[in-house]
Design goal:
Distance between the termini: 71 Å
CATH superfamily of the largest domain: YVTN repeat-like/Quinoprotein amine dehydrogenase
CATH topology of the largest domain: Methylamine Dehydrogenase, Chain H
Number of strands: 58
Radius of gyration: 34 Å
CATH architecture of the largest domain: 7 Propeller
Number of domains: 2
Number of helices: 6
CATH class of the largest domain: Mainly Beta
Helix content: under 10%
Strand content: 35-45%
Strand order of the largest sheet: 1-28-27-26
């Protein structure tokens, strides 16, 4: 056996990310064995039939050789309690439990260490694991899982059912009598070893054997990986029935991570994202290579990921170490993305570049990794600085702290100030005209310019219509409506609306509903259809809806004004229209002469001060005026108009697919999504682009949804439905076809959580935040609506009863109600039980 050689920290890679602390040459290779790592200790086979235990502390005891096997050691595992610290080793001839304190004491006395034999001749062992209290041990021997009692050395249970050799087994921490095992038969099984029964058996998950598994105790999840680099996450919550949360391809995650990092570096340079990088980070070898998931372990990632971590829920989802043949990866279980990539070949002092076996453990900001060479006899122990690793691969800081809630006043050069200034400059002239009209002048007794004839000599005419002379103004009617509608505080701790109360069809024949949205006071529900119409229902879907007709194409976007008087709609015919809700008539129209490119998204902005819209790659800010004249004779001669105030072009002149901005309160930020799959944040106070998130989804985003609905304030009553902490309003969600929902935080520009449980592979299904901020609802193609808790990675409820694809969802801002819309033109109202 060669003398081990250790490398000092000064010889590590630049930045002190990784150091090779120990290197050992063994007489026999050990490419496919289960290793053990529990900082500060590592355990691995030495010379075939011996067990080596190495520690980073106390140099006289760095390497402890334990001999007792007569066949090569194939699996090693540490105990869990640490008092005393145990290590279990298994070979084809026996399974031995070692007490490390006694073994060290005997070694110092010059005696040979000895262990406790738990089982003789178990067969070919691929894995071994100690129970949570170290009183039992699970051994994967062939197609069986043997459960051994440490005290009596008896076999408590022999679990059979796998069709291939068992490759890994784990005890469930919160259900100690439960063991989960994976096998080369590509499935996992859940056992109750006390009863000796099978609780659950999964279907075949992959085309290659499952090699490893790990538990996420905080989220009650099971993670398993296979030889082809696929990773599965299952929910072990009792009501979820072993539901698959996500399936990730490690190679694709590495490619996405490297591309985003390269593009972020490019965007941080002067000139922005003019073109994607040609070579990225030279990841072609990693993408093309097979990345088997050799090991999974919990990663105690330090708080270097920004302030958003932990804000979404009290549940700490955490991260995982993934050990593979060519590198180590940190996988985030909240957003299912890689936080860091460590490739062995990037560190010039490492001796093993291709690993056959791997084990990782982390503690106190440091991680230990023990590797065995695939094509050699070397065994190496690496020490990784977690903070340095993650910090070296974070996106460049933009130098701008973004927040939906403004922290300063409007700048004099801001386009928001410009629109307000023009309005103020127009007021003196109006006042002068009014004053001029009020001046009394000398006039004859009959001073009318036109005197109506008596009509005696004229022919009587037919009465075409009788105008209503008692119609009140929009302002008076709107105020009356608001006062009549009782506002009450939205219950923050209310149960989710899951009880179906009402179902109706919006038209005689099947016509798809493209979008639905509640008004800010929760009284009205607007519904856009593909047959060119918009409908306005009462919130409880009773009564006859108001029909708004005027578009020549399918209605694509609806948006309520903050005061509830106006409804904005856009259509695929390239027009934008503003409707008077009380009069049920058109108030303002913009056609193709003003909008040469189709309008993908539009809304009221800055508490109804502006109209914000996207036309091609342009983000436009319009100052509008709606004529409220009630002259029945001249009411068709409209004087409503729009004036362009400001225009911004997206980075790379990419067409905007969706936009979102807060209209419930004053905010300077506007969020946009582009055809290039990027998200861009515009600061209209500064009049420029503030940030770009490249590669946000694998496909273009079709909807951005902000958590601002609960900030609605009833002006006439002076009270609000509900309010939340300020940082909650910095969360927003995006969705794309086939790529689930992502929850972002503006302060860090990071995806904090991902939801993938709903099928949406071919149709753009809508999403919505609940007013309490606890839930995100989404449509789906399997005739269900899904509701996620923002602190969980899987859906909490699946609402059934639909007859077609659920295209849109909307939460009422005033009470716990959820409305869903389907492709066959049906609306369903769900209420809390």
């Amino acid at each position: 056996m060669e003398e081990p050689r250790a490398f000092p920290a000064s010889s590590s890679w630049e930045g002190g990310v990784v150091t090779e602390r120990y290197l050992l040459g063994s007489a026999r290779p050990a490419p496919h064995v289960q290793l053990a790592c529990c900082p500060p200790l590592c355990a691995f086979p030495v010379d075939g039939d011996a067990l080596g235990v190495w520690s980073t502390r106390d140099p006289p005891h760095q390497l402890l050789i334990l001999r007792g096997h007569h066949q090569p050691v194939t699996a090693v595992a540490f105990g869990n309690t640490g008092i005393p610290l145990l290590v279990c080793s298994a070979s084809q001839d026996c399974v031995i439990m070692w007490r490390l304190d006694e073994c060290r004491a005997r070694r110092l006395q010059g005696l040979a260490p000895c262990g406790l034999t738990l089982c003789a001749h178990p067969g070919k062992v691929r894995c071994v694991r100690c129970g949570p209290d170290d009183q039992v041990a699970a051994v994967g021997a062939g197609r069986r899982v043997l459960v051994l009692d440490v005290q009596s050395q008896a076999t408590l249970a022999e679990l059979e059912g796998h069709q291939g050799p068992v490759t890994a087994a784990e005890f469930c921490a919160w259900r100690p009598h439960v063991i989960i095992s994976v096998s080369e038969d590509r499935s996992f099984k859940v056992w109750d070893f006390r009863a000796g029964s099978l609780l659950f058996s999964s279907p075949v998950l992959a085309a290659s054997p499952l090699l490893s598994l790990c538990f996420n105790e905080a989220g009650q999840q099971l993670v398993t990986g296979c030889a082809e680099g696929q990773l599965w996450v299952f929910s072990l919550v009792e009501s979820h029935h072993y539901r698959c949360v996500t399936c990730a391809d490690l190679r694709k995650k590495v490619e996405t991570f490297s591309t985003r990092r390269a593009e972020s570096r490019l965007c941080s340079q002067p000139g922005g994202c003019e073109r994607p990088p040609a070579d990225g980070l030279d990841t072609g070898d990693l993408v093309d290579a097979t990345l088997p998931v050799l090991a999974l372990a919990r990663c105690d990632l330090p708080l270097v990921l920004g302030p958003a971590r932990g804000l979404l829920s009290s549940e700490n989802t955490g991260c995982l170490w993934i050990g593979s043949s060519t590198g180590l990866f940190i996988f985030n279980l909240a957003n299912f993305e890689l936080e860091a990539v460590l490739r062995y070949k990037d560190f010039r002092n490492l001796s093993i570049l291709v690993a056959g076996s791997c084990a990782v453990g982390s503690s106190s900001g440091k991680a230990l990794c023990v590797l065995t060479a695939m094509f050699g006899n070397e065994i190496a122990v690496l020490e990784v600085n977690l903070a340095a690793l993650v910090r070296s691969q974070q996106r460049p800081h933009l130098g701008t702290d973004l927040s939906v809630l403004p922290s300063s006043g409007v700048l004099p050069t801001s386009p928001l100030c410009l629109g307000t200034a023009e309005e103020k400059r127009a007021q003196p002239a109006a006042h002068k005209q009014a004053a001029a009209r009020s001046v009394l002048k000398d006039k004859p007794l009959v001073f009318h310019t036109h005197v109506r004839s008596s009509g005696y000599a004229s022919t009587p005419h037919a009465s075409m219509f009788s105008p209503k002379t008692n119609v009140k103004g929009d302002c008076e009617r709107s105020s009356k409506c608001k006062n009549a509608y009782k506002c009450k505080e939205y219950p923050l701790e209310s149960s989710l609306p899951t009880k179906l109360r009402r179902r109706l069809a919006v038209a005689q024949g099947p016509v798809a509903v493209s979008c639905v949205q509640f008004s800010g006071d929760g009284r009205w529900l607007a519904c856009g259809l593909l047959n060119h119409l918009s409908l306005v229902f009462d919130s409880d879907l009773t009564g006859t809806p108001a029909v708004l007709s005027g578009h020549d194409g399918a209605v694509s976007t609806l948006g309520w004004s903050h005061n509830g008087r106006w409804l904005l709609s856009t259509s695929l015919d390239g027009t934008l229209k503003v409707w008077s809700v009380c009069r049920r008539e058109l108030a303002l129209s913009l056609g193709r002469d003003r909008l040469p490119k189709p309008v993908r998204a539009a809304q009221f902005y800055y508490i109804d001060s502006f109209i914000l819209l996207s036309s091609g790659p342009d983000l436009q800010l319009l100052k509008y005026h709606v004529d409220t004249c009630r002259d029945e004779i001249k009411r068709y001669n409209r004087r409503s108009h729009c004036t362009p105030i400001f225009r911004l072009l997206t980075t790379g002149a990419t067409e905007i697919t969706s936009l979102s901005a807060a209209n419930e309160f004053y905010s300077y930020l506007v969020l946009t999504a582009g055809r290039n799959r990027a998200l861009e944040v515009f600061d209209l106070n500064a009049g420029r682009s503030a940030a770009v998130i490249v590669g946000a989804h694998s496909r273009p985003v079709h909807q951005i949804c902000q958590n601002t609905v609960s900030f609605w304030c009833c002006t006439s009553l002076g009270s609000s439905f509900t309010t939340q902490q300020a940082h909650i309003y910095n969360l927003f969600a995006t969705t794309a076809i086939g790529d689930g929902i992502q929850l972002w935080d503006l302060r860090t520009l990071r995806c904090e959580r991902r939801f993938e449980g709903h099928p949406s592979r071919g149709y753009p299904c809508g999403i919505a935040f609940s007013p309490c901020g606890r839930f995100v609802a989404s449509g789906a193609e399997d005739r269900h609506a899904y509701v996620y808790e923002v602190g969980s990675s899987t859906f909490s409820h699946r609402l059934s009863g639909h007859t077609d694809t659920v295209t849109g969802v909307a939460f009422s801002p005033s009470e716990p109600q959820l409305v869903t819309a389907t492709l066959d033109g049906r609306l369903q109202l769900f209420v809390a039980e």
